Amino acid sequence: NWSIELLAAMVAERHECAVLPVLPYGPQFSFMGFPGSIAIDPELLRRLIVDIGTSLQGHGFDLFVLLVGHQTRYEPARFAARDLRTRHGLRCAYFEYPGLEEAAETAGAVAAPVAGKGHSDDIETSMMLASRPDLVHMEAAPREVPEVPSYFNHVPYSWYGPLLEHGVFGDARPATREKGEQILTAVADRIVAVLSDVERDLP
Q1: What is the C-alpha separation between 112 and 124, in angstroms, rounded?
Q2: Distance of alpha carbon 112 from alpha carbon 71, whole angstroms
Q3: What is the pTM assigned to this prediction?
Q4: Are strands 143-144 and 91-95 parallel, antiparallel or unpaired?
Q5: pLDDT tens per residue, the chain (203 residues)?
Q6: Dist. CA 42–CA 137, nearest whole Å
Q7: How many CB atoms lie within 10 A of CB 138?
Q8: CA distances from 143 to 13, 149, 165 (A)
């Protein structure tokens, strides 16, 4: 949430827009093995996004942008955007760190063990160091790169609990604030470029 909050602020600096508070909860199927995890139903999140979008539309907003900070929230956000566009006529765009892997590679960040599946790894920890360094304890940063089963991407499997001790999937130890800032800057620039195209091409 902290990284997506900083990303939203960076986008707002480059592209005039209003920024709403981050929604703190979402679907958390893969994390429920860890104490303290809180999950809400994906349909509840979809409906909440639709209600927020229609409220904004009623106040005169004609483009609703969703920045998604976790992949379990992406599908509800995508379906909400589709509903808002087709049923309510509201232009929507949704993003889950576009260009993240390319930006991370350019910044020299260590890639996730499985593409797109890292958690609290070099990439995410670097972004946290850029957004809330006071919450990051690098002296405790672990490396967890387990063997994953063949069905890893093919079944609804709460794999963090059975596979990981600390919830880190990847290597957090090389993370730096500089890498995080570079990654978030590149992602923000990509979002702004896409939004400019949306405003130009989609009535």
Answers
A1: 10
A2: 14
A3: 0.92
A4: unpaired
A5: 899 999 999 999 999 999 999 999 999 877 787 888 899 999 999 999 999 999 999 999 999 999 999 878 889 999 999 999 999 999 999 999 999 999 999 999 988 777 767 888 999 999 999 999 999 999 999 998 888 888 877 887 676 667 888 888 899 999 999 999 999 999 999 999 999 999 999 88
A6: 32
A7: 13
A8: 35, 19, 10
